[in-house]
Amino acid sequence: MTDLKNIKIAFFDAKSYDMDFFNRANADFGFKITYFSSHLTIETAALSKGHDTICIFVNDIVTQEIVDILIANQIRLIALRASGYNNIDLKAVYRRIHVVRVPAYSPHAVAEHAVALMLSLNRKIHKAYYRTHDGNFNIQGLLGFDMVGKTAGVIGTGQIGKIVAQILKGFGMRVLGYDLFPDKASATRIGFEYVDLDTLWKESDILTLHCPLTKETVHLINEASIAKMKPGVMIINTGRGMLIDSKALIEGLKSGQVGSAGLDVYEEENEYFFEDFSTSVITDDVLARLLSFNNVLVTSHQGFFTKEALQNIAAITLKNIKIFFLEERTESEICYKCGQQGGCVRKQTGKCF
């Protein structure tokens, strides 16, 4: 049996909180972890030499060229400490190097952050905070609306989307859902209704995105879909940045068709999010424009950022690595065709769904 104490992990894009939670979780495993603050890139991939696996996050992009370097450095496993895997070239890794991920860590964390964005935008909490700190207690311009009786559209009703729907039903909202694979039993239990996208665009006062990023969902929010929405709609995105065409969103905000937007993700976030640019100039004109709107609230991909989620991410990531090196089948292994985990029939029959 493999001695886990001999397994070496190259940990990229390491922050102080990553090291804190992973060191605590590693007490149960004993891996040798080397932390690198840099992202995984063509230039930094060489740091993987002498290790058995790499551990990466959402802004570490694994390309064909990087896979070639990892293979040359005898890396056997890519361990994602995240649920999404759109930053992996799955064709490049297929049958060459294994990939594991954390399919669920704390859906409540992301769902609650999405609702926090809704409440902050509606009641202008972000604006009120700065006013009162300046000694300004005037409430002019801070008018919100009662959420009870309003309609929320939830796009993607997986674990996170269902929790969001449940919270919003608690506010007395009417909730509409859209999903390619509707969970009708949960819809009945929670009390929301599945509709087509056109209905959802037309009737929703608040839209919240919780679907995966696929070829079909890239720029799901675009000029055409925004034109179909209710004037003054609030759009919330805690999923993936590329679900929204940012330039189309800006035009919608300028015209008033979009009343407000809460963004925990951004389609070109790789360069900025999780880093400190407070003493620098933001050269991304689109991001700078979004930040200039007083009805746009941008957070830096922190929806997952709770104690419980970080504990789960660390424990599940290290468990995935343990299972792989003990040559046990892991349900987190990804099929490059369908994205399914352990249930993909390719593993048994060589054929995919």
Class by alpha and beta content: alpha/beta
CATH topology of the largest domain: Rossmann fold
Radius of gyration: 22 Å
Number of helices: 13
In CATH, the homologous superfamily of the largest domain goes by the name NAD(P)-binding Rossmann-like Domain
User: Strand content of the residues, in percent?
Assistant: 5-15%
Distance between the termini: 34 Å
Mean pLDDT: 92
Structure in words:
The protein is of the alpha/beta class. The chain has two domains: 4-105 and 306-349, Rossmann fold, CATH 3.40.50.720; 107-298, NAD(P)-binding Rossmann-like Domain (Rossmann fold), CATH 3.40.50.720. The protein is built from 13 helices and twelve strands. The chain has helices at residues 16-26, 64-72, 90-93, 107-123, 125-133, 159-170, 184-190, 197-203, 223-228, 246-255, 285-292, 307-325, 346-349, and strands at 8-11, 32-35, 53-56, 77-80, 98-100, 151-155, 174-178, 193-194, 206-209, 233-237, 258-263, 296-298. It has a seven-stranded parallel beta sheet with strand order 8-7-6-9-10-11-12, with helices on both faces. A five-stranded parallel beta sheet has the order 2-1-3-4-5, with helices on one face. The chain is globular, with a radius of gyration of 22 Å.
